[in-house]
């Protein structure tokens, strides 16, 4: 290793230790009250070793049960962290005291990427976030989402077609569906292939960003001055990560924007959130908000970062649950056949008439909430709750896993059972609050789009296919494991195999006809 980089590493490690010690001593200085219960901290490192790499939702649910507490507090190298395991406490803190608990942790890597002012998901709580949230709400509210149904249906029909011809790639098809819906709503940009350049850039960007966003994922999050070091310096992994991430981010933003501007110039642009904003600005020379375009474009690309992995995770868990529960599939298909029949594909108008399908949707979101500990909130003031002190700057996680697996509320919680959302007459009960979308002012702003995409996927796949176990060469069924994997805070089912068998020739014909209706040739999107 060259001498200069050895020197650099020694200085960086020395500073790292100093900063750490200061943080740890600062975090001990408080005399304001006891922290909420938690594992006993060790000298200097606090609870650093009590934090598992994966499965934090499940782990801190157990810790909370052992401590008989709905709150679990940790001090990780001087950073206060709080897991909320009970819904009533999340309501008290994240909803009723939203003014204090709507921040996001400050990370240097986020600043280096410019995401503190451009990505609503990770922005601090303040005027800039409010401005972005307002625009996001305008385009993603319940009423507006109804106007996107034709977009969702069109992309869903393409996915059904792909399931006919390359069922083994079903996980890729769900990725294309979730990306295509968001990119179409935002830019009118058409994604029909997994290797679409905007999709590839977006995937690479998210993969890099996820590791940089973790507090310990980049050294610069602990030693902020490191962000100013050139990316080429050996050992500056985070610096290189930020540089590459910026390249992919610009690519994913520029490709759909360039495509949209070209279509607008040619008079060929379909209506989209961004085109509407650009047209409005172009039409009114006076009284325009000069910032409107910037904020709209930020919402457009940032929606991708919030929407895709979550929707893909939920769809993956749906396929897996169906594979394990043929009884649920048969019951759902009986409901579809009795209400819709075999002569057409489902539409959104069918939603109120299909309680069992709705119950499956609710159960998928309960059984495996994709952001299983929510997204990190950060407190912006000192606070006290139930006699415990919660210092300003605490990272707060709504442990959605613990809340959706609370045996007192959802008995036999690890079992997939849609009936838990139905009453004795088979009608939906009043448990319609989908906890998987989070709490308070930072709750998922895209939940209506997500709900519609999930629902139409569930009902349409069940209307057309049997989801069955894979078979070996001798025709014996192969068991599928129950392992999951973690991408940052997203929990996904580990890739698995299953078969999509068309329910009938009629179902196959309906899928073929639906894709002819959308005017897309088979080769265009296979
Ligand atoms: C099944 C799919 C989805 C799930 C489970 C989900 C869940 C969540 C959760 C738990 C949060 C964080 C809430 C918190 O901080 O307490 C969130 C935030 C967010 N979601 Fe979703 N989401 C999904 C799909 C979508 C879609 C399709 C969009 C956009 C079209 C979207 C846009 C956003 C945005 C912009 C935020 C950040 C809101 C803010 O910080 O103010 N999400 N989502």
TrEMBL record:
Keyword check for Iron: yes
Keywords attached to this entry: Heme, Iron, Metal-binding, Monooxygenase, Oxidoreductase
InterPro entries assigned: Cyt_P450, Cyt_P450_E_grp-I, Cyt_P450_sf, Cytochrome_P450_fung
Entries under SUPFAM superfamilies matching the protein: Cytochrome P450 (SSF48264)
UniProt-annotated binding residues for heme: 444
Entries under Pfam families matching the protein: p450
A GO molecular function held by the record: iron ion binding
Cofactor(s) in the UniProt record: heme
Pathway involvement of the protein, from the record: Secondary metabolite biosynthesis
PANTHER family to which the protein is assigned, alphabetical: P450, PUTATIVE (EUROFUNG)-RELATED (PTHR46300:SF7), P450, PUTATIVE (EUROFUNG)-RELATED-RELATED (PTHR46300)
Family: Belongs to the cytochrome P450 family.
Protein name: Cytochrome P450
Organism encoding this protein: Cyclocybe aegerita
Lineage: Eukaryota, Fungi, Dikarya, Basidiomycota, Agaricomycotina
